[in-house]
Amino acid sequence: MSRGNSFFSNIPPVTKHLIIINFICWLASIVFASRIDFTRLFGLHFFLSPDFNVAQLVTYMFLHDTNNIAHIFFNMFTLFMFGITLERALGWKRFLFYYLSCGIGAALFQEVVGYIRYENVIGVLSAADVEQIRQHGSELLATGMNWVGDAGTLNMIINVPTIGASGAVYGVLLAFAFIFPNMPLYIMFIPIPIKAKWMVIGYGAIELLLALSTPGDGVAHFCHLGGMLFGLLMLLYWKKKGIIDRGNYFY
Question: Which alpha helices (DSSP H) does the chain contain, by range?
Fold first, then answer.
């Protein structure tokens, strides 16, 4: 406590409430797991899946893996570390718009990549097989089983939803490096500071490498890249319009 202000009162409103909402959704997913399948209802499905609806482009970013606390912890820790400074620089309205736009943009990018993978697989399967996978694949996955070969790959594309705030959070990382490119940052186990711009470029390169080399590792790498891409496009537009000026934020 300092001068009557608590630690939480010093966190800007959007960053604070995003963190709170994410943890509430995570806890609700655990408490009501026996009644409501939050992931199936609100996770982002491939747009040709019978479980897809447009609202999932937003709702997916407020869900996290209930079996792995590290998923929500690291996303929210990153949002806390970088969102505070970024929200103060952009203002709460623009920061909220940016965050949600990056999350939605990441979802759209994930859908496009999913469709490309879908087109690469669908040609070797019959129409009847594709329809069976589309209608009943999620039931098979719920039992811990899957088809082998191309049928299994297609089932993963259609019926495995994407959840997590990572796409939006990667957009926050990109914006931080864009506005504060020379701010020194420390990464765990590395004793020397790294400028924000090099750290984020490194993260982006790693995500691209993992996306291309490990497409079945269960991590939506292209979603992360999509959040960064949409964030960069918004920032470049704002810079061109004079809405933000990187020169005012150099450290």
Answer: 13-31, 38-42, 56-59, 69-90, 92-122, 127-142, 149-159, 166-179, 196-213, 221-240
Report the candidate in 215, 199, 237, 241 with the shortest Cα–Cα distance to residue 105: 237
Among 76, 154, 148, 145, smallest CA distance to 115 is for: 154
Angle between helices 221-240 and 92-122 (to 10 degrees): 130
Is 210 exposed, middle or buried (CB count within 10 Å of its CB: 0-12, 13-18, 19+)?
A: middle
- Kindly list the structural domains of the chain, giving each domain's residue range(s) and its CATH number in brackets, ordered by start: 8-248 (1.20.1540.10)
pTM of the model: 0.92
Is the Cβ–Cβ distance between 46 and 157 less than 8 Å? yes
Task: List, for residues 40-72, the tens digit of each pLDDT value.
Answer: 999 999 999 999 999 999 999 999 999 999 999
